[in-house]
Amino acid sequence: MLFPKKVKFRKWQTGRRNPKRDKVAVRGSQLSFGSYGLKATSPARVTSNQIEAARKTIAHSLKRAGKLWIRIFPDRPFTKKPAEVKLGKGKGEPQGYVAQVWAGRILFELDGIDEATAKEGLRKASAKLPVKTRIVTRD
Predict the structure, then answer these.
(1) I need a labelling partner for 76 at 20 to 30 A (CA). Which of 3, 6, 33, 115 fits?
(2) How far is 67 from 63, CA to CA, in rounded Å?
(3) In what order do the strands lie in the sheet with 93-101?
(4) Under the phi-then-psi rule, with left for phi > 0, alpha for psi from -120 to 50, and beta for the rest, what region is 113?
(5) H or E element that contains 49
């Protein structure tokens, strides 16, 4: 599971998403390493568990061939209060980490395998993620 080694603050302010002013990723929007990639077409927060599930799915479909790059990292902590606890009494404890993903961001890249295998692996991985995605290739 991915998480930062050290954080400056244990709990971050959540922030809110305004659908009218959704950002489009500029940084990390092009294929840098591989020939095939999975690109987000909608914004969302992706947890470290979801990234790991997608990674395992891609690795299983690759069958130890090719190379995989994970282009997002969960660096934002999210908190949660225990079950059946009344409101108030402060903020909950950190539960895990999420990566804030904007539309246009490349999530995974693949190289060293044929196109059909790459597209099948990325299609299966997209089912594990909370974002709408599309498969992109290097021109």
Answers:
(1) 33
(2) 11
(3) 44-47, 93-101, 76-80
(4) beta
(5) helix 48-62
Helix H or strand E segment including 51? helix 48-62
> How many residues in total does the chain contain?
139
Asked if pLDDT for residue 98 goes beyond 80, the answer is yes
The pLDDT tens digits for 61-83 are: 988 889 999 999 999 999 999 99
CA distance 123 to 64: 18
CA distance 133 to 136: 10
CA distances from 30 to 25, 27, 138 (A): 10, 8, 9
Domain 24-79+96-137, CATH? 3.90.1170.10
How many CA atoms, within 13 angstroms, populate the side-chain half-sphere of residue 47?
A: 10
Q: Is 139 helix (H, G, I), strand (E, B) or coil?
A: coil
